[in-house]
Amino acid sequence: MSENTGASYADVGVDIEAGDRAVELMKEWVRKATRPEVVGGLGGFAGLFDASALKRYERPLLASATDGVGTKVDIARKMGVYDTIGHDLVGMVVDDLVVCGAEPLFMTDYICVGKVFPERVAAIVKGIAEGCVLAGCALVGGETAEHPGLLGADEFDVAGAGTGVVEADQLLGADRIRKGDAVIALAASGLHSNGYSLVRHVFFERAGWSLDRAVPEFGRTLGEELLEPTRIYSLDCLALTRTTEVHGFSHITGGGLANNLARVVPDHLHATVDRSSWQPAPVFHTVGELGSVERLELEKTLNMGVGMIAVVPQESVDVALSVLADRGLGAWVAGEILERGDRAEAVELTGDYAS
């Protein structure tokens, strides 16, 4: 009798036992990223959140957002550092939620790998869980998918989705923005998670730099600079809305400051932002210089040192700056809201960056 030579899941590269091991390793971190409203634990087919908590709202609006980290995951892979990329994922999702004034409630994640290395997957989830703690939301579940043949053994990607809630009459947006409002810039921690296709091209293909190259201007290696986690602003923004009057926020991601701020400026108004009010971190200048990237292209691609914008009435400026300073976050008045008049653009950047 011939031996059974039938195909198996393991033969094509999917290791169920490794996946189970990864789940066991990540449970410790997921338990730390919770809220009182979470029902049950990790391992169910769906995450459960007690919606009766929303009864305190008159008219609760649920907000939803989803995002990934982009090609920054390649930096993490090459450096073998997997426990920070989750901060980026959470920041990209929850800070889209808070722009409308929504409090992030919970997140789910999706991790796609070429091969499951349990410790590596657990490290990614650890970063996501830590990010959720920083954002004040729960991590209620997720999925790890093994895709041999589509991804190399060391390759991976991450994505996430989040849900938040805001009272209908407290919803923030363009309809609240008024002439005379101040534009407050909230400092970025670095490049965050946008523009890495350009950044990687400049540093690796054009300049031939290595990740372990020490860069005096950065005060660390290139890899350490590029892997700096995205700042998570959700609790800072919520602290502002609970302390003083806020008319709007803008999360500065792909498209840069002008394009993202324009999304919350009504058609009849115009925002001016003075570049001289801040000095971008050295990494932005270095990308521009090494790649011969024009300033407009840099500003369309990178955050240039501003990760979030708060638009507040003039009488709220001092309180807003004080609240953010108390929370250890650099912030400054960067511009104002004016009548549009015959201006073609919703947002205008003026002056030159401080040096």
Automatic annotation (TrEMBL):
It catalyses: 2-formamido-N(1)-(5-O-phospho-beta-D-ribosyl)acetamidine + ATP = 5-amino-1-(5-phospho-beta-D-ribosyl)imidazole + ADP + phosphate + H(+). Its main location: cytoplasm. SUPFAM superfamilies: PurM C-terminal domain-like, PurM N-terminal domain-like. Pfam families: AIRS, AIRS_C. It comes from the Bacteria. Its EC number is 6.3.3.1. Keywords: ATP-binding, Cytoplasm, Ligase, Nucleotide-binding, Purine biosynthesis. The keyword Cytoplasm applies. GO terms for biological process: 'de novo' IMP biosynthetic process; adenine biosynthetic process. The keyword Aminoacyl-tRNA synthetase does not apply. Pathway: Purine metabolism; IMP biosynthesis via de novo pathway; 5-amino-1-(5-phospho-D-ribosyl)imidazole from N(2)-formyl-N(1)-(5-phospho-D-ribosyl)glycinamide: step 2/2. One of its GO terms (cellular component) is cytosol. Residues 178-342 form the PurM-like C-terminal domain. Residues 58-166 form the PurM-like N-terminal domain. GO terms for molecular function: ATP binding; phosphoribosylamine-glycine ligase activity; phosphoribosylformylglycinamidine cyclo-ligase activity. InterPro entries: PurM-like_C_dom, PurM-like_C_sf, PurM-like_N, PurM-like_N_sf, PurM_cligase. It is an enzyme of class 6 (ligase). It is found in: Cytoplasm. Belongs to the AIR synthase family. This is Phosphoribosylformylglycinamidine cyclo-ligase. The lineage of its organism: Bacteria, Bacillati, Actinomycetota, Actinomycetes, Kitasatosporales. The gene is purM.
